Amino acid sequence: MAPGDPLTETVGRLAGQVGHWTPSRWAASGASGVPRGDVVHDLVQWLADRCADAEGRPRRPVPRLDNDLVLPDQLRVVAADLARFGGPAVIDEAAAKVRAVRGQL
């Protein structure tokens, strides 16, 4: 991800917000009533799907690992791929999605 692009900035804010969370905090429900770990994993999957579309490859499920503490890293990796392969409209849409999820947590 390039510093200064909207996706990099919003992902950095979200990762900074959740990067220190404990397992119990990840398991707690966010504003939507869904556990926070599920909300962030759904975001990672959404970003991965957009990246697959941008690269012209099939969508694949992002593994849900046993430890939610890895979710910020998964988020950064998938967002970096999307920032590399997605066009400006996709990047803006993804940044808006990340901001929305951040508000739900």
Summarize the structure.
This protein has helices at residues 6-18, 23-27, 36-55, 71-85, 88-104.
Oligomer: single chain
Biggest pleated-sheet summary: none
Order of helices and strands: HHHHH
Shape: globular
Helical content stands at 55-70%
Number of E-state strands: 0
Instruction: Compute the number of structural domains.
Output: 1
Give the helix/strand class: mainly alpha
What portion of the residues fall into strands of 2 or more residues? Answer: under 5%
Query: Over all CA atoms, what is the radius of gyration?
Result: 13 Å
Tally of DSSP helical segments = 5
Mean pLDDT: 94
Distance between the termini: 23 Å
Low-confidence stretches: none
Overview of the structural elements:
67% of the residues lie in helices and 0% in strands. The chain is built from five helices and no strands. Helix 3 runs parallel beside helix 4 (71-85) and helix 3 (36-55) runs antiparallel to helix 5. 30% of the residues are buried.
Main features:
mainly alpha, 67% helix, 105 residues, 5 helices
Secondary structure topology:
Layout lengths: L5 H13 L4 H5 L8 H20 L15 H15 L2 H17 L1
